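User: Could you check the structure of this?
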Amino acid sequence: MAAAKTWSWDLQGQRGQQRDVRVELSEHCLLFVCLAPDLQPPHPAYVPMAQKLEGSLLKTYKQDDNPNKMFLAYKVCMTSKGRPWVSSVVRKTRMQIAQDPSLNYEYTPVMGMKSFVQASLNLLFGKNSQVIVENRAGGVQTVGDSGAFQLGAQFLKSWCQSSQIVYIVSSQKEPHGLIFQDMGFTVYEHTFWDSAHLCLDPNMLLDVVKHAPHGCVFVIGSMGNCQLTPSQWTQLMTLMKSKEIFPFFDIPYQGLSTGDLEEDARFLHYFVSQGFEFFCSQSLSKNFGIYDEGVGTLVVVTLDNQLLLRVLSQLMNFARALWLNPPTTGARIITSVLCNPAMQGEWRQSLEGVVENVMMTKEKVKEKLRLLGTPGSWDHITEQKGSHSYLGLNYYITSSINEAVCFTKDSER
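Assistant: Sure, the predicted structure tokens are below.
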């Protein structure tokens, strides 16, 4: 190849600024490069401070000097001592893994630990379920609670270009919309929490589906908590089928909603039985109490095995670019527990205990609000499932809930 030749000129640019223009001529191409001060990327010194994500409620809590204070909006399950809950079986398993001399800590495959992915699928659908037996379900080990959405959004952006509209539908505000927005999707966010009647309203979900355009993506959270009647299930399936809506489910804490792992994921069987293809973000950090590990799976369900293999091959390429090799500590812990019947039984009992404690706390808060004469009915607190619930509070009763929180804390001592 011949050596490149370069010529340079100084030209007068816009607003009197000097530009350095270089022309490089090689054997194959002519390349013009123009460098100008007004076209340069912004200097790091001019990058603004990002908006703080910490809410005013947490700030008020931190500023309160009451020694008996308790913050009810944490994203993790807390013990009576104010520490994050960790399943007892996890602690034992972590020690066993640390003392295992056979581990070589080699890089994991891009798709993650095969045994972990299979154990996760069995937990979600059941080992003998139709979709598992027919090899129509697969998965990729993901990093963090949002890794599955990052990976799934990459795939949809590249291979489903006709589906560039995303609806985020849940009972609460979800962070997933930011991921889709950053990738250029048009995002609409809706909730099926009825703040007027303080309940989850399935009709609100159905209404969003009715008005959604053909071929869009539906990211659905808290689906297991939305109690649909058989006729509403039929209506929902019919609408989504006729509009060719692609579901992308979020299951962030299977087992912590009702205490029953199978019940919390039962709604997926409706979609499998009706021939839907879908993605599902399955996070296993919260229900094992290993929040710092960020372990999860992007679950893929297709109509046949050949399509599944093609989709997984593309997801592997995206995963290679995003994180290459997922970490293994959390995945090893979870796999060890799920593949050992005795350890899995102990873990299931610990989940039931957490749910019982959550319900007991809700009962105490509701009863204290009643004793304080707080206006309104508070039955909705105990009617909601899961570790997180809407209290339905207005500003004028803030002092009442503060007293209720202190009372609950004192009664657990």
